[in-house]
Amino acid sequence: MNLQEILEKIKHIPSNVVDEDTTMHVKYLSNLPDVPLILDFGTGWGKIAISMALACPQAEIVTFDPGTPYQNYEEIVRKYLKPYKNIRFAINDSHEVIWIERIDVLSIDASHTYEDTKFEIEKFYPFVKPGGLILMHDYVVERVDVKKAVDEYLLEHPEYEILESAGYTTIIKKL
Predict the structure, then answer these.
(1) DSSP three-state, residue 138
(2) Which fold has domain 3-10+17-174?
(3) Predicted confidence pLDDT, tens digits, the chain (175 residues)
(4) Whose CA is closest to 46, among 8, 78, 69, 6?
(5) What is the residue-wise DSSP string for 54-71?
(6) Helices 146-156 and 114-124: angle between axes, nearest 10 degrees
(7) What's the pTM?
């Protein structure tokens, strides 16, 4: 599915995810080899998860959200991804998830507080494989503390490099 088809398919999903975010998903995910594992949290109504699944249909995606106010998010996501089968859902927040798998792509769009973002980065960045990608949503938004938490972490961890930002998505690569 090309970028225009994906944009058309997801345009009715309520979200602050903009076309430039989806463009980044297509640019960075469409050519991933094999069956990459994508971990996405802060699912909301699922626009990012759906965008990534359409950009990288061979991927296995694990997506979770605490479920408030998104109690029906799995139903909404599945509606847009029929017959996509490689997706697992969980109603958890990032503090409750026990994670042990290596990740090809990590997508974070959760609470946006400094404390939660710092926790999520420290907990999940180490699981990203070398050469893997991190999609930080809202890094460029000044009214949230995502940038502060990410920048502090990157200062102490030179194995990560910011590649580019567009829309609200910043792409970070683990070297």
Answers:
(1) coil
(2) Rossmann fold (3.40.50)
(3) 899 999 999 999 888 899 999 999 999 999 999 999 999 988 888 899 999 999 999 999 998 877 666 667 777 787 877 766 688 887 777 888 889 999 999 999 988 889 999 999 999 999 999 999 999 999 999 888 999 999 999 999 999 999 999 999 999 999 9
(4) 78
(5) HH-TT-EEEEE---SS-T
(6) 40
(7) 0.93
For tokens 């960045």, what's the residue? 125
Alpha-carbon dihedral 68, 86, 78, 98, rounded to 10 degrees: -10
* The two structure tokens encoding residue 54: 């359409």
The set of residues, in sequence order, having a beta carbon less than 8 Å from that of 44 and lying 6+ positions away, is 15, 65, 70, 73, 109
Can you tell me the distance from the alpha carbon of 53 to that of 168, in angstroms, rounded to the nearest whole number?
Answer: 18
Spatial CA neighbour of 35 closest among 78, 76, 87: 87
Domain boundaries, the chain: 3-10+17-174
Residue 29, C-beta contacts closer than 8 angstroms, at least 6 positions apart:
36, 38, 52, 55, 56, 59, 105, 133
Helical ranges in 11-134 per DSSP H: 19-29, 47-55, 73-81, 114-124
